[in-house]
Amino acid sequence: MNALDHLWARGCDFLGTKTAIMGGAMSWVSERHLVSAISNAGGFGVIACGSMNPALLDAEISATKALTGKPFGVNLITMHPQLLELIEVCIRHEIGHVVLAGGVPSGAAVRAVRDSGAKLVCFAPALVLAKRLIKSGADALVIEGSEAGGHIGPVSLTVLAQEILPVIREVPVFVAGGIGRGEAILAFLEMGASGVQLGTRFAAATESIAHEKFKAAFVRANARDAVPSVQLDALFPVIPVRGLANEGTRNFLAHQAATLKRFQSGELTKEAAQLSIEHFWAGALRRAVIDGDVEQGSVMAGQSVGMVTAIQPVAAIIAELIGQAEAAHAARQAQVPRTDARSHAA
């Protein structure tokens, strides 16, 4: 057994996989092709249900099963109006792991997952919430730092890991946000993580259905290009989303400014103004991922995008990450501690 096998044994046992590498649930990207590729390569693919209705999720799960016999999970958004029906779809398909994201899950949702025998995975953006989720029935946690792509919280993974990993031992904890190399995976495992979750590197994989222009934007980008959306005025809250800066992000600022003026002049009510701001990005992720509009669309990406240097098969990405982690561990083991010659003097 090598170092990684030992360090992520708990995560592998929980997921039922060879490696404790989860795929991040990315809308329009984490579908049957990428999910099955991650699972077939020894990782744990996760379907991003997003706004799918039960019939669409049912079809996506069936299609994924046709491509892999390995374990995979389903990510459901807690605010989805048909959440309990979506959970029923997962139960009918005997999905072994259900991830509830986007908020604190209701008691009814937790009971529905646990009563089915499936494992419940929840996101914990703070230690106090991590403890609460475990008490409510979470079987594992994901802590995701602000380095991640898509909707983000305010705290970096380096801080969350220090706050949560030394304290939470009852359930496996997977870390996410900004992870792009094996050395980082090794470091977090040594801190106490049971595994990791990656999204950005997999989004640009060969098996990803994302448009070639979307993938090319990832390859060109640097870490500093992945920025959170900016809120212009506290009166109109904006949930931060990290993505590549483009014409769309600049237009969003202009749209907020224009909407604020319309509100101040009495042309719009506060509710109408907020709705106008929230609707600006409607369909923008699909335009970027599926249609390849990387200028006006929302090119969601984490800061690890700077480590995406080529479009690679999923299996190659996972092998590269493992190779880097194992090499880093071997290098540490090879280091011989210096001794003070004076301590050996007779």
UniProtKB/TrEMBL annotation:
Keywords, sorted A to Z: Flavoprotein, FMN, Oxidoreductase
Segments passing through the bilayer: none
Domain of life: Bacteria
Oxidoreductase as UniProt keyword: yes
Recorded GO MF terms: nitronate monooxygenase activity
Protein name: Enoyl-[acyl-carrier protein] reductase II
Organism of provenance: Acidiphilium rubrum
Highest classification ranks of the organism: Bacteria, Pseudomonadati, Pseudomonadota, Alphaproteobacteria, Acetobacterales
